[in-house]
Amino acid sequence: MKDRRAASSADNDIDSTFSSDRVAGRADGVAFESEDFRDYLYPLDDPMLVASRELDYQQFSADKESAPFLADLLRYWQGLYDEPFEGVTTDGVVRRGLYESTQASVWDAEAAAAASVVVDLLPAVRHPIDAHEWRAWSNPEFVVHRVGVRLEELSDDQVTAVLRVVEASLSPAGFTKVTGAMALNGMLGELVEVPRVLNERSYWFSVFGTPEVGGTWGWQLFGHHVAVNWVSDRGRQTCAPVFLGAEPAVVDGAGLFDERVHLALDLAGSWDAAQRQVAVVYASVLDEAMPQGRLHPADERHVAGAFRDNRVIPYEGVRCAGFTEEQWAAVRGIVADCLLQRDPGPMLALVDRNRDETWVSWYGATDGSQPFYLRVQSPVVLAELDHHAGVWLNNRLPARFHIHTTLRHPNGGDYGGVLAGT
Prior knowledge:
Elements: H1 47-53, H2 57-65, H3 68-82, H4 108-121, E1 126-127, E2 149-150, H5 156-169, H6 172-191, E3 203-209, E4 216-223, E5 226-233, E6 236-246, E7 250-251, E8 254-255, H7 258-270, H8 273-279, E9 280-282, E10 318-319, H9 325-338, H10 345-353, E11 359-363, E12 373-377, E13 382-388, E14 399-408
Parallel strand pairs: 1-3, 9-11
Antiparallel strand pairs: 2-3, 3-4, 4-5, 5-6, 6-14, 7-8, 10-11, 11-12, 12-13, 13-14
């Protein structure tokens, strides 16, 4: 067997970050190989690691901008960022009135108090509630937009104050997911010995509006594999867009997204032949039947990531109108696991209301033997889970231990639109 750790980053043949294998169609399936991410560690003397080790995050970002593929991607992202916000749709037309009856419990007193402390400590964290910078978030390790304050440039006490805002705003499970992804980023930086680029504080934080009980305000945290946008309006909360991922996402058999993966596989395993035939859109995550452009070197299969605020994403797969109660419970559980706010009940009620217009699409085998892509999509929610190829690990094909997830509220519901009654 080939020593996977002997592979060099020179094998990345789109540029120094992305290999062509991640977007090349294959006639055969993509089977999981080793379950242990350690089998895919680059040698510490690999040229990519050595070069990155000498740079801080700003120098690293400037170096990345010189790569032709990324330079083109950044120009494309800037064009998307400059567009007026409308929201994700299925056909380019925003449906109105979907969120008018959204109600929620009042949870923001503790969060507002914590955010007020941060605003006093760090005036540079502030932006107007309607600032365009809401849409500046991104998830790569290289910096696209510098918004607010960077945690690694703060004191320990200041970082503690920022994380107190996050903890006071999110559910305990949501806070664990967010800080878990941040910790895994730090672990990756230590493993590859590039801690100035990848660390537990490689994140930007901003406060939008004036944090006060019953007011309209929010915060944003973003960086490598983490992007969270939280808004409170008259005590009601929403949290979207959300991007969470990890490389590695599975360490010694325990994964950051285990519950979501298990629910997804349970759902897929419950489909009868007719349901499976329409739900499984592509036989593998690199199915050669995919149309040109469906696979993207940076996003791979997920479609709702950074700067995709206005993307047109048609439904595909199987419609949940014919699902059993057990199957719908699995779909609902997947969505619930994506919701980070303290009280997900109002959003889940909207998801239930739109059950007959909810679709599930799947790429890959449904028995857990292969990487897969899952999307749950309705007029009010879009949630994705995608297995990815390596960036800082050298698996050239998608693996169990590199996962990206997204959450959006379509039709203008992102960035607090849910609460505005869009």
